[in-house]
Write a structure and sequence with these properties.
The protein is α/β, with parallel strands linked by helices. It has a domain at about 1-25. It is about 30% helix and about 25% strand. The chain has a 6-stranded mixed β-sheet with strand order 8-9-10-5-11-12, sandwiched between helices. Strands 4-3-6-7 form a 4-stranded antiparallel β-sheet, covered by helices on one side. Helix 2 (about 120-130) packs across helix 3 (about 135-150), helix 2 packs parallel to helix 4 (about 165-180) and helix 3 (about 135-150) packs across helix 4 (about 165-180). The longest helix is centred in the middle third of the chain and has 14 residues, at about 135-150. It is globular, with a radius of gyration of 19 Å. The protein binds adenosine-5'-triphosphate and magnesium ion (MG).
Length: about 270
């Protein structure tokens, strides 16, 4: 794109001047993620994702909500190249995502930290990504220290990850992703098992991020505090995509898909 216009894109890839302003070339917004006609089946479970198409612009913070088993984690595993789509296309930061690719510009915080942490120590786990990026020893060290400090887990550095509490594992998993400094961060149930203080720290971290963020969560208050856009998914299909206060404030819609209007949106 070589114009100086700030452009948003709709699904048909037609520039849409919703924001109605002209910006300098540095401020041009590009898609961080484009998914087109995505279908996916597990060998013994068909059509877990059905014709999913979505465009997420650079810098957006998007919440993905939906009942258990609606396909959120499955969707994330495809965006990151862990699972191969049955049909459709995924383009991440301008490049097609290929199955099995290691892309340091995309980071996934797994729903289950035990799927992510496998090294003998916390330090090694957080260093794994930066080492794979072939960074210098000093740079790896700096990034590990920085990432563990951000999540206030520096004192865990020498501990074996499998001895940590569930909440501690979550914070270390987040540090492992932050250490790669990805431009697209994908969080699968990031607040699960966190105590109040750690959850608040996570919310502040997410709010302060300038990167593109995609968060699947049953913690609807977190989604409300962090995201400017929410996507509701059910049975592998996108049901709606819009403003979090409007989507989550719609009692009938929320009930129809096994959700509840967040307490903070209930008028007293
Ligand atoms: N490895 C697998 N093999 C077969 N079926 C699977 C597998 N993993 C997930 N599924 C099924 O795919 C569907 C979507 O699961 P997924 O984990 O993506 O849901 P989810 O929206 O992340 O749910 P939750 O909110 O519980 O995390 C579910 O019906 C699940 O049982
Ligand atoms: Mg899940």
């Amino acid at each position: 794109m070589d114009t100086g216009q700030r452009l948003c894109y709709n699904d048909s890839n037609v520039p849409d001047e919703r924001l109605g302003v002209t910006m300098s070339s540095e401020e041009i917004i590009e898609p961080a993620l484009t998914v087109s006609g995505l279908w996916f089946s597990y060998p013994d479970r068909l059509n877990v994702l059905q014709d999913v198409s979505i465009k997420i612009m650079s810098g957006e913070r998007v919440g993905l909500i939906g009942p258990n088993g609606s396909g959120k984690t499955t969707f994330f595993l495809q965006i990151c190249g862990v699972l191969k789509p049955s049909a459709g296309e995924i383009v991440v930061l301008g490049k097609p995502m290929l199955n099995g690719d290691f892309r340091s510009d995309v980071g996934l915080v797994f729903q289950n930290p035990d799927d992510q942490l496998f090294c003998p120590s916390v330090w090694d786990d957080v260093a794994f990504g930066p080492q794979n990026m072939k960074l210098s020893k000093d740079e790896v060290e700096a990034r590990v220290t920085e990432a563990l400090s951000i999540v206030s887990a520096i004192e865990l550095a020498d501990r074996p990850a499998h001895h940590l509490s569930e909440g501690e594992k979550r914070m270390v998993s987040i540090a492992g992703v932050l250490a790669m400094r990805p431009r697209l961060l994908i969080y699968d149930e990031p607040s699960a098992n966190l105590d109040i203080r750690s959850r608040r720290r996570l919310i502040r971290l997410l709010q302060a991020s300038e990167e593109t963020i995609l968060i699947a969560s049953h913690d609807l208050e977190l989604v409300l505090e962090v995201c400017e856009r929410v996507v509701l998914i059910d049975k592998g299909r996108i049901i709606t995509d819009g403003n979090p206060r409007e989507v989550m404030g719609d009692d009938k819609l929320m009930e129809a898909y096994g959700q509840e209007k967040p307490h903070s949106l209930v008028q007293h």
